[in-house]
Design goal:
- It is elongated and about 85 Å long.
- 69% of the residues lie in helices and 0% in strands.
- The longest helix has 47 residues.
- Helix 1 crosses helix 12, helix 11 packs across helix 14 and helix 13 packs antiparallel against helix 14.
- The chain is mainly alpha-helical.
Length: 316
């Protein structure tokens, strides 16, 4: 699950923190990096567990309404949502159950939020259409995909709760949401409780990428900053924001350390990170600088890659 997008984000954050921390121990910093990455995987499981918590609350409320209907002799409420087959399968998932058992804090600690979100679900048109729609596993699964995209993926109350639960989750949710949706789509009824969730890492290659990139960015910092200075030319390098230096330092590390990653991919990825983590004008500056640095390193024979066409510098 942990992909290079998440890894790049974490390395930008942890490299910046490394220089802000008076005790510059790279081994300790590397452990913090991998701990931070593991917290992203915890968030993935925690968001899947939210679906289970909502379903359990729906069943609890259903029991209350059923008892009331029997007392009063009125029609009983629909059971379809409370016994949604996809949600029940997720509730029994062995991997998710193992995760929940290890957590000190669960969604049971936030009953008010779970209750409010369930009410939003029950008032939504998606829910009402579901009650009238096909009775199939596929329809049950599609319901949760639509509910997640509509009411969970962009939810300010949920974002606030997650921020309170872990400082590591501030920047993770947008990426992790895509993996939760991917997981919902991949669920197959015939797999029952043994349905596989996404692994923490797709392969050891991703862990190796994180370790090598982080260490290269820090251990070769002086060399990379010299390349920035040599390539600045028409740019006022001395006025560069500190975060911009960090971002370019990591980008250069990726250019030089990983021969199979195309230069345009590296440049584009770090330009996007600059839009999030640095000043409004930084992305255009970094775009032009990284292009110039790459061409400078190619001319010197230090970079054996091709840069097909000049990068367009963004204007602010």
């Amino acid at each position: 699950m942990i992909n290079r997008e998440i890894i790049r984000i974490k390395i930008v954050q942890l490299t910046y923190a490394y220089y802000q921390n008076g005790n510059k121990n790279i081994d300790t910093a590397e452990k913090e990096l991998f701990f931070s990455l593991s917290k992203a995987y915890d968030l993935y499981n925690h968001l899947l567990a939210l679906i289970v918590a909502l379903t359990k609350e729906a069943r609890r409320r259903l029991e209350v309404l059923q008892a009331k209907a029997r007392r009063e002799g009125t029609p009983e409420p629909p059971q379809k949502f409370a016994f949604n087959r996809f949600a029940l399968q997720l509730e029994e998932n062995k991997q998710l159950l193992e995760f929940i058992e290890t957590q000190k804090r669960t969604w049971a600690d936030d009953p008010e939020f779970v209750g409010r979100l369930l009410e939003q679900i029950e008032q939504s048109q998606i829910y009402l259409d579901y009650l009238q729609g096909d009775d199939s596993y596929e329809a049950d699964r599609e319901l949760w995909r639509r509910l997640y995209r509509t009411l969970i993926q962009d939810n300010a109350d949920l974002d606030q709760i997650l921020e309170e639960q872990s400082l590591y989750w501030n920047d993770d949710k947008e990426v992790v949401d895509t993996f939760v949706l991917k997981t919902i789509k991949r669920f197959d009824e015939k797999n029952g409780p043994k349905q596989e969730l996404l692994p923490e890492y797709d392969s050891e290659e991703e862990k190796d990428y994180a370790r090598k990139l982080f260490r290269a960015a820090i251990l070769n910092a002086d060399e990379y900053q010299r390349y920035m200075s040599e390539s600045s030319l028409n740019w006022d390098f001395s006025r560069l924001a500190y975060m911009d230096v960090i971002i370019m330092q990591i980008a250069i590390a990726e250019m030089l350390t990983f021969p199979t990653i195309p230069l345009n991919v590296t440049i584009n990825e770090y330009v996007e990170l600059a839009k999030v983590y640095s000043t409004p004008r930084s992305s255009g500056y970094i775009n032009g600088m990284l292009d110039a640095i790459a061409r400078h390193l190619i001319r010197q024979g230090k970079l054996m890659k091709q840069l097909d066409k000049p990068q367009k510098t963004e204007k602010s």
